[in-house]
Sequence to fold (644 residues):
Amino acid sequence: MTLHIDSVSKRFGQYQALDSVSINIPKGELVALLGPSGSGKTTLLRIIAGLETPDQGRVLFDGEDATDVAPRYRQIGFVFQHYALFPHLSVFENVAFGLRVMAREARPSEEQIRERVSEILKLVRLTNLGERFPAQLSGGQRQRVALARALVIRPRVLLLDEPFGALDVTVRTELRRWLRELQQELGLTTIFVTHDQEEASAICDRIAILNEGKLLQTGSPVDLFTMPATSFVAGFLGSANILARESLGAGAPVGISGAKVAFRPADGKLSTSAAAPAPGGHLRLSGTIQHREFLGSIVRYAIARTGGEVQIDAPFKAGEAFIAPGTEVAVDIPHDALISLNS
Amino acid sequence: MSLAMPERRLEKLSPSAARHRPWSPERGHALLLLPPLLLLVAFFVIPLADVVLQSFAGPGHPLTQYERIFTQSSTLQVLLYTFQTAATVTLCTLVLSYPVAFVVSRAKGNLLHLSLALILIPFWTSTVIRTYAWIVILQRRGVLNEMMLDWGWIERPLKLMSNGVGMQIAMIHIMLPFMVIPLLNTMRGIDGNLLRAAAVLGANPLRQFLSVYLPLSLPGVSAGSILVFISSLGFYITPALLGGQKTMVAVLIEQQASRLLDWPMASALATVLLVVTCLLFLLYERAMRFAGGGKTVGEVS
Ligand SMILES: Nc1ncnc2c1ncn2[C@@H]1O[C@H](COP(=O)(O)OP(=O)(O)OP(=O)(O)O)[C@@H](O)[C@H]1O
Ligand SMILES: [Mg+2]
Fold:
């Protein structure tokens, strides 16, 4: 099902939680909603699910206005930020809940319920845990129960609110791959909330970046990484050095238009022989090494210069000496690695 | 681990540091329990034991008093009436408190403080005063009857004082906070997202309540009910002032002890009340452990 969110705004008292947010999500797409804490991600999901009414704007399912439809008629799969499993019901009954509460005409028979729940439990690989209670499960297992419970009603849209938030890194990476495969297999239109940019880039078709209730930019992970529009997006997706354009002085290349300029730490090339001229097509910044962090495959140098500190990642080669703090260095950045930013 | 390290080093440095341990009931600090313990033993346990012993002391064989209680229809009726009253009061209190607790559990800010104050202020007012207030309202020529006569709802004043109805009304009023507070405690702990999850899964409001909210609020329901039921069983002031011809067991005990001077009988009645209360409490404990146990069995295995 396609999902249209049409200039949705929501205010809590004085606080503008969402400010005219619009996104179109085609059928079967997995969109990551990425943003810092308090940026309105959960609020947007709740509006889509009908748990919150927008002050302005509309939510359309397959082109049909659903803004005033009660949550229970929307047929949406929602995985809550902290799972919200029913603590008094077994895993089986948690998953069966959505089937048992159906209107009598639509409700499957007891036998069909058993069948569908077992099928879904198999899909999320929890076949033997049906009798357990949520308190007896690990975080990853609870996560999968929450997903099973959302999937059993055959939702038209799947909304996942930081589904892997509370899990450790290995479980997260495993689950996110599995989730992606499942989502593609079922062809489910999905919104995946996270504040982990790596997670968003890893599995999603598109990323939408939300900050302070505003949708800043949407695009494929590669587009957002290579062409961020603002310094917030540049800094949020991977690390970036952001410089005011005037601070570049005479070396500023033509073709850079915005108020600010960004480049990725890996794109700068460090050299200690500051005397040699900059190679053609490169922007040269000079400064002194301030600080050094060894991060395994790379070494991250912080370089102090007039006009702002920059960070440069140099690949680490075994046997090579680190550049000592205090050394004067030159940083050469190819012109095509410079990104102009509007703000 | 890393947090514990500096502490251990400290112990090595100064010998006195090794003796200075954080508070714990096992390490001698249990001595702090001694004063209240002495007080309780001297003024509660010993007199109580005395009461129990006295109940076996009267003329005839030791169980004479108990035989009287359970064979005389007058005492049996009092016991039965006491249980009936306690049950009615508990049920009515529950029905009245549940919606109140629900609303207050959702309240925020000033509304929350105001409603808590409205619940707690009567709770801090003396039971005697509140009972007298009810007498003023409910008596034959009281506020309620006068009002209903004026409005023409009734032709003759209703009897509310002599038949136990007034007593039950006053008891329900007095018991409300004892029900609201445990309910409130439980309800505030219920994650609002559970109801939202139920709604998204297709449950209508009634289903959300019956399948999710009600079961999760049951610990509060049972804690409040047992509190109100047990308190009502032994309630004295209100039944004494408002009971009319109907007698609750606490009133009967008082009559036996101070008017008829039948101490063994009074003691035996008190013992029966005590035993019933303890049994109910044990039953409640067992029920709670059983309810909680269902969720923890798997953790052990
Ligand atoms: N019911 C509410 N009443 C008042 N303010 C609210 C309410 N719900 C959310 N807010 C406010 O709206 C803002 C956005 O909240 P939201 O829960 O959508 O953030 P989020 O992006 O999901 O953050 P997180 O990553 O921490 O979950 C927050 O500042 C929050 O305090
Ligand atoms: Mg959130």
Summary: Chain A has two domains: 3-235, 243-341.
